[in-house]
Amino acid sequence: MVTLISTKEGFGLPIVEAQATGRSVVTSSTSSMPEVAGEGAILVDPYSSRSIRDGIKTVIENSEYREAIIRKGFENIGRFSPEKIASQYASLYRKLSITKESQ
User: Measuring CA to CA, which residue among 1, 50, 9 is closest to residue 28?
Assistant: First the structure.
């Protein structure tokens, strides 16, 4: 299990790294974490020790849930493959080029 209970995070790369290695993830429901984690993590309130405890306890005690978020984590990491990211950048650059040429 990987816990990333942060209140501010630029991107949340540790979430993707943990998912790529088949770890269950418990992370904050704030900042970029929900968007990065997708459905492959349990989201907790980083300001509530009860919420954090309950999230960790769920992952430890509920093997079906734990396996589900691990599976969804593997599915989620596909959004961040180098090929997909490069393709998205190339598309953005093409759009910017077309916009600039039409000015």
Answer: 9
Residues 46 and 52: beta-carbon distance below 8 Å:
yes
Residue 6 has, within 13 A of its CA and on its CB side, a CA count of: 16
Describe the strand order of the beta sheet including 42-44 as a list of residue ranges.
Answer: 2-4, 25-28, 42-44
CB 37 within 8 A of CB 76: yes
AA identity, residue 55: G
The owner of tokens 């989201």 is 43
Whole-structure pTM value: 0.81
Helix orientation angle between 63-76 and 13-20, rounded to the nearest 10 degrees: 110
pLDDT digits (tens, 9 = 90+) for 34-66: 999 999 999 999 999 999 999 999 999 999 999
The domains located in the chain, with CATH, are 2-101 (3.40.50.2000)
